[in-house]
Each structure stands twice: as C-alpha cells, then as structure tokens.
Amino acid sequence: MSVAFVPKRHRGKAQINQETIQRLLDENDQLVRCITEYMQKGRAMECVQYQQILHRNIVYLGTIADASQSWLQPQTSPPMERHQH
Fold first, then answer.
1. pLDDT tens digits, residue range 2-14?
2. Which residue among 3, 16, 31, 69 is least packed, with the fewest CB closer than 10 Å?
3. Which ranges carry the SS18 N-terminal domain (predicted)?
4. How far is CA 27 from CA 36, 43, 70, 75, 82, in A?
C-alpha cells in the first residue's frame, strides 16, 4: 500500500523525513516500471490503478516540497504603506 494513503486519524501526524521521501521515490520508480510493462504488453486498462497511485504520490511529494520551501524562506513582514501628505 502506498505511504500516501494514510488513514485520516494519522494525517498530519506523520513525520516527514528523508526516509519517507525516499520510500515514495522508490515506490514511484517501481510504479513507473510497472506502468511501462503493462503498456508494452497492450494492457493499458490494468495500469490505471498504478497511474492513480503514482499521481497521488507525486502530488503528495509536491505538497511536501512546497511546504518545505515556505519553511526555508525568511519570514518577512509586508512592506509598510507610505502615506502621502
């Protein structure tokens, strides 16, 4: 089962670390290989479920990347408005 399919009660509680990200990347590699194999055999319908899992994993990894970018950016306050006299 994909690590992206986390039960609702555990969502937001999982530790996102390099190991978790690497597991997802490894799983994505395997999914791509599986999808490719099915496509080469002319069995496109069988690979739909794997494409859906791959899509969810990629979206999840993108979400992690976006969140980590906001953590890395310095927190700045909005510029002060200048009042015209």
1. 555 555 554 555 6
2. 69
3. 13-70
4. 14, 21, 26, 34, 52
Instruction: Give, as one character, the DSSP assignment of residue 79.
Output: P
First-to-final CA distance of the chain:
64
pTM to 2 decimals?
Answer: 0.65
Q: What angle do CA 41, 43, 44 make, to 5 degrees?
A: 120
Amino acid identity for residue 72 in this structure: L
In total, the chain counts a number of residues equal to 85
Tokens of 69: 């970018």
Q: Is residue 67 within a helix (H) or strand (E), and if so which, with residue range?
A: helix 48-72
